């Protein structure tokens, strides 16, 4: 899998936004993902919270057709004009909105676009939600075999122990 910076940033930022706690500092998350000019006002925070709920559907659905439909709806809302950019000395890459757009528009575009590119390049199988009961965390599956099932090793271990206990004969 080849990623340039926005192709990697988009899906990773989508994961971080979907997994963010209700009290999380969204501006800090944007800064962590190298979003330029990340300043958010209260309205921007509210819009990005509901955008994160919309992004979640792209991870939760298992059917490729349904996933494409979900991401197409995100693109309808987020994408502007497709154009090439070389900002910050980076190799030419595609942006879905102009750099002078406000931060909310840029975040929508990079997350929707990132999920779209990833889905197109990976056969639609690399977005997932944790298999452990009660865990709602989502992930991008960058494993070699593409069979990741858990958000973290911790959830995987927890489930393995629970299965082991369940399989033991009762005394
Ligand atoms: Zn860029
Ligand atoms: Zn988990």
Automatic annotation (TrEMBL):
It comes from the Bacteria. InterPro entries: ABATE, ABATE_dom_sf, Znf_CGNR. Pfam families: zf-CGNR. SUPFAM superfamilies: Jann2411-like. Residues 126-166 form the Zinc finger CGNR domain. PANTHER family: BLL6575 PROTEIN (PTHR35525:SF3). This is CGNR zinc finger domain-containing protein. It comes from Nocardioides vastitatis. The lineage of its organism: Bacteria, Bacillati, Actinomycetota, Actinomycetes, Propionibacteriales.
């Amino acid at each position: 899998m080849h990623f340039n910076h926005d192709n990697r940033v988009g899906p990773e930022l989508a994961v971080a936004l979907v997994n963010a706690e209700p009290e999380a500092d969204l501006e800090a998350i944007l800064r962590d993902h190298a979003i330029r000019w990340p300043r958010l006002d209260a309205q921007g925070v509210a819009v990005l919270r509901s955008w994160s709920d919309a992004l979640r559907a792209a991870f939760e659905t298992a059917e490729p057709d349904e996933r494409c439909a979900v991401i197409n709806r995100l693109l309808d809302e987020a994408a502007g004009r497709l154009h090439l950019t070389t900002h910050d000395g980076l190799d030419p890459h595609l942006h879905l909105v102009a750099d002078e757009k406000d931060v909310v528009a840029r975040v929508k575009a990079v997350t929707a676009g990132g999920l779209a590119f990833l889905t197109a390049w990976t056969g639609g199988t690399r977005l997932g939600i944790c298999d452990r009961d009660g865990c709602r965390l989502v992930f991008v599956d960058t494993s070699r075999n593409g069979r990741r099932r858990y958000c973290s090793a911790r959830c995987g271990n927890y489930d393995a122990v629970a299965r082991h206990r369940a399989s033991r004969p009762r005394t």
